[in-house]
């Protein structure tokens, strides 16, 4: 029984997979947080640019 417990304790199969899953989840979470933070400012800037472009009158040079 002790041999089984010691083998289980020393077995590292799957530990790297768990590390990668946690790391990937952290990166995805960080990306989502950055996206939501930047989204508001980007939308406001796009609206400002749109309104400025709509106010411009273009002459045909005559």
TrEMBL record:
Where would you find the membrane-spanning parts of this chain?
Answer: 20-38
Q: Which UniProt keywords apply?
A: Membrane, Transmembrane, Transmembrane helix
Q: What protein name is recorded for this chain? A: Pilus assembly protein
To which species is this protein native?
Maritimibacter fusiformis
